[in-house]
């Protein structure tokens, strides 16, 4: 008999591929999302799941579309990366284009770039909200929705459990940004990532306490947020870790 649970999916760039592996492991145990709250990369995966796709179908779409960053050299003031490939994949494959029409409820967290506050989207057009939630400042242009600039939701809460509190029980939180041991020899990108992780970690620890079950696959620490070419390894890391976790719980 299938069991329905509320899920929270974090951001994490390419490590967001692991969400599909985690959800796949749960589906093997007949545990499926009844609602998802997500941000950044997690919101991309969540949109497809809430749209009625299976994890296997989403995995195939991600592989075929070669989802990742498309380089658009603009200028440093505006941001020099684009989410064009992500936008194209969403437009091409999503069956529903508004939050209200999705088969499963979805909450997408973005950060208001004008005042720094978290904004939760759960109505209106779906794709702009997902792109806004995935827009890392300095690397991407902010996404304007109704005249307000929005950026990555991870900055105001990388595990956005808030929309589920008081409405759903037994929340399952999935965070794909484990903090790895400090490496003094790390380069610029590694140090930039570490700085970002440390800046957003405190709110994540608080959100974690609101989750009945928390998953943070340790092996994801060896992947960078821009390792989009390592889809299979990232997916498998999430899958294997969660399978072992669920098997251990069953044995207990």
UniProtKB/TrEMBL annotation:
Residues 7-165 form the PNPLA domain. A motif (GXGXXG) lies at residues 11-16. Keywords: Hydrolase, Lipid degradation, Lipid metabolism. One of its GO terms (biological process) is lipid catabolic process. SUPFAM superfamilies: FabD/lysophospholipase-like. It comes from the Bacteria. One of its GO terms (molecular function) is hydrolase activity. A motif (DGA/G) lies at residues 152-154. PROSITE patterns: PNPLA. InterPro entries: Acyl_Trfase/lysoPLipase (IPR016035), NTE (IPR050301), PNPLA_dom (IPR002641). The active site is at residues 40, 152. PANTHER family: NEUROPATHY TARGET ESTERASE SWS, NEUROPATHY TARGET ESTERASE/SWISS CHEESE D.MELANOGASTER. This is Patatin-like phospholipase family protein.
